[in-house]
């Protein structure tokens, strides 16, 4: 499609007054704003995050927060609403601060404050703080106040964290010490309650049980032997009417006594059904018959001797019975204590394991408390990581803004864009037929001839009068509108600052 340059040139000439008016409005606003904006002074300070002065291998601080995290937290605390309002009121940052709303004060302070952090791996971490204001002394004072607050916040941040860590581990050591004492008391109480059934002396009690069992067997054998002897003595007296006191004994009596001793020894080893025991009992029976025949003529004092011997045997049997009873009772107590030892061992092991766990926690807490005390000492003496002033803020001698050339250029660019946009918008909205080529393209009909629009003299004067009126209205209305905005709504410099801030210009 061929572009009719002459046609568009004539359209441009026809719309040029309106486009010029739009351009002049934007350019005039840009120039007025650039001229009306006051000079802005910028003051800056630089801070450095220093590494710990004591190597971590020797003693380290208990603060685990990195330098970037610490600076980020401090920055958020610095730009809080309360701090910004206090600083603005203290240094009278804005001329009409008494009439400004708190939200506007906070917004103005934040827009005038710039904080930037630089530094990477194996590089020093720097923070730069910049504040802009119409008064150079106020700008420098605000930056120095920012620096003071940051240094105080950094020291307070590290001290609070170290103190919090120290308080925590002091409480842990105290709590675990109480638990350790309570667990020790539980163990002592359990041992006192089960002192006869503890696993520590289980071997001794088992050996004692074996000895008592052997002793009980021996006592029972001796008791059984005395019982048989008493029975034999009684039987002998009843059979012969006398007893042999051991003097002038015949060979048969001596052999009978020897066989009885052998029988006692055999019964201590073998059972009553053993062949040797039966053989000894048979021979004893035969000899008892022979001895009974020999002693049929016994003396009259046999009864008294029998009573004496029986009394001795009864006394000995009473002692043996008492010893057997005591030994059996001790064996029963040992049996019960040995049976209770496994369960007591399990319970005592659980108590000891709890004690060891608490002890390990207590030892770890004591070590951590020592490290926390060392970390607090490092922070109190400022030997750890800290923020220092690398370069303070000085009162600036020359203004840093505004960039008037950029503002005027922005107004001119906005005017050009608005004028071109106006021209393009009218072309997009105008759907009427104005050229023969449009008749051909729209209807497919080739006209034989075209009659141009004939403008009358009156119409020409009306059109020119309207253009002149519009031009005069722009020349008078734009300054008047700017004056009304400046005096009734908002100062142009403040309005321009907001607009420039929205557009991203400094």
Care to describe what's here?
This protein has 506 residues and is α+β, with helices and mostly antiparallel strands. It has three domains: 135 residues, no CATH class; 233 residues; 128 residues. It is built from 13 helices and four strands. A four-stranded antiparallel β-sheet has the order 2-3-1-4. α2 crosses α5. The radius of gyration is 61 Å and the shape is rod-shaped. About 1% of the residues have low confidence.
Number of strands: 4
Question: What would the principal axes of the Cα set say about the shape?
Answer: rod-shaped
Class from secondary-structure proportions = alpha+beta
Radius of gyration: 61 Å
Q: Between the first and last Cα atoms, what is the distance in angstroms?
A: 46 Å
Helix content: over 70%
What can be said about the biggest beta sheet? 4 strands, antiparallel
**Mean pLDDT, as a whole number?**
78
List the helices and strands and how they pair.
Elements: H1 5-36, E1 41-50, H2 67-78, H3 81-91, H4 102-112, E2 113-118, E3 125-133, H5 136-193, H6 202-240, H7 251-269, H8 275-294, H9 302-380, E4 386-391, H10 404-429, H11 436-443, H12 457-489, H13 492-503
Antiparallel strand pairs: 1-3, 1-4, 2-3
